[in-house]
Amino acid sequence: MTHRRTRPAPKRILIVGAGTAGRSLADDVTRAGDDVIGYLDDAVKGPDILGSLGDVERVARDLSIDSVYFAIPSAGGDVVREITAAVSRAGVELAIIPRTYRIVARERVSVADLTDVDVLDFVGRAPVKHDMDQARELIRGKRVLVTGAAGSIGSRVVAQLHVLEPELVVCVDRSEPGIFHLGQSLGQAPGRPLEIADVQSEERIGQLMDRYQPDFVFHVAAYKHVPLMQDNPLEAFNNNVWGTLNVMRQAARVGAERAVYVSTDKAVHPTNIMGATKRLGELILADLGATSESTRFSGVRFGNVLESEGSVMQTFRRQLQAHKSLTVTHPDITRYFMTIDEAAQLVIQTATTGRHGELFVLDMGEPIRIHDLARSLIDAVEPGLDIDIVGLRPGEKMYEELSYASDTVDATTHPKIFIVREEREHRPGETLAWVDRMLSRTRAYDMSNAELRRELIDFGFAALQ
Question: Taking the complete model, does pTM exceed 0.85, yes or no?
Answer without folding.
Answer: no
